[in-house]
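Morning - 9D3 inputs below, output right after.
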Amino acid sequence: MEFGVVTVLPEMFTALTDFGITGRAFKAGIATLNLVNPRAFSKDRHGTVDDKPYGGGPGMLLKVEPVLAAVDAARKQCKHPAKVIYFSPQGRRLVQADLNELASQPALIFIAGRYEGLDQRLIELVVDEEYSVGDYVLSGGEIPAMAAMDAIIRLLPGALGDMESAEEESFTDGLLEYPQYTRPESVSGKHVPEVLLSGDHAKIRNWRRQQSLGRTFLRRPELLEKRGLNADEKRLLDEFLQDLGLD
Ligand code: 9D3
């Protein structure tokens, strides 16, 4: 997968290229990254990349010509035709289904917004999809672009080790994870649930399923509404709530 990123802060991307699973994927050539700084395409000797909004008001926008030139340069560096994705607070919320679709593309160019964002004409001219990562205020689109690339790289063949891949397969059924414990058996008077020490693997599987259902019901009820529950799961959830005295 070929990634291009248009950003005035390319140095931030070492967080992705130099560490962990994503670092390994770039080293192995599973993904490639071209960083393009609009500042390199600025027309004046100060390298100006921002300008005032027409109509007045606070804040600055990224200038059109340097960003347009940077997107063109990013396209030329791609062997494959690229979709252009813009990260902004006005975008649709990015979810796993979007990332699954993006992971099937041969090339993606991300535009990371800074300041108050992009001129609307630039969005209409070059942007295929506009995404937000959530309803909170960040300082720019670089961290959202990195989050998207991280999530996409995990989906690429060979990016995860055998252990991580096996874990990934057993997940994706729309529930939150069950609570997990490692040694020691007791921490400041808090003990590992007895069932996990029992060696009864059917019972452990059942308990974990119940914990997943209970947690999802309490923390993310909208996930259960979308997914629905079978008769077995209803019974496990009822028992979970009964045990907590929440029925
Ligand atoms: C005058 C109001 N502006 C400043 C508070 C709005 C604003 C502009 C630009 C708020 C944030 C940003 C920079 N954010 C992003 O580029 C961004 C973002 C985000 O802030 N939240 C969630 N997802 C994203 S994707 C890109």
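Note: The longest strand covers residues 83-93.

O.
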